[in-house]
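Do me a favour: review this protein, sequence plus structure tokens, and tell me how the chain folds. Record follows.
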Amino acid sequence: MVPAIALVAATALGITALLGGLSEATEEPDPLGQGAVLDQGLYSTKFVESRVKVEPPENDWDEEKRFVELVFDVTNQADDTFSVGAPPVRPEQAHLATSFAGSLIKISPAFDKEAGPFAYALSKGGETGQLFPGVTSQVVVRYELKNGQQPPEKITMDVAAFEFAPDFNNNLPRWTMVTKEVGDKFAPEVKARVTLPVKEGDPA
């Protein structure tokens, strides 16, 4: 007679083989929320909040504007200056980016093209498109809402990471996005999936 424990082991191995093996099991990215800090290699990022920002009209013939803003505290951990950038229009092109916002490879729900995104870092009361070495900057990524459009209750982001590795062409190390092969192409590897509630905000 075959011992019961051997039968269980054989059954488990059979199921594993049927599903394609343990090594091929799909791993879900780390789920994160408001206030979480993520080490992206090139950047250390705190996910501060998502909010609605209302900007009153600048004059009598102008109209009030409303934005959904994603707010981050971003520290450039490299020795060089990198750009704030913008979230990719198409996720399959994101692997070429080294900018911070370029690592936000998917934002759900998606906004219309006319809505943005607009991305910048705050620096001494002004706006800049640069992230300086060793400096923590507050970064804002915003989308404009149409007149009467309701903001989403929450926003979910798929976030990529970067690695300092030898370049394929000349073997010199540089920062590149962590990728995986999908067929004959490369796609960003999702480091974390972050969900933020969208809070109603006060006028700017």
Summary: Residues 28-199 form one domain. The first helix runs from residue 4 to 18. The chain has a mean pLDDT of 85.
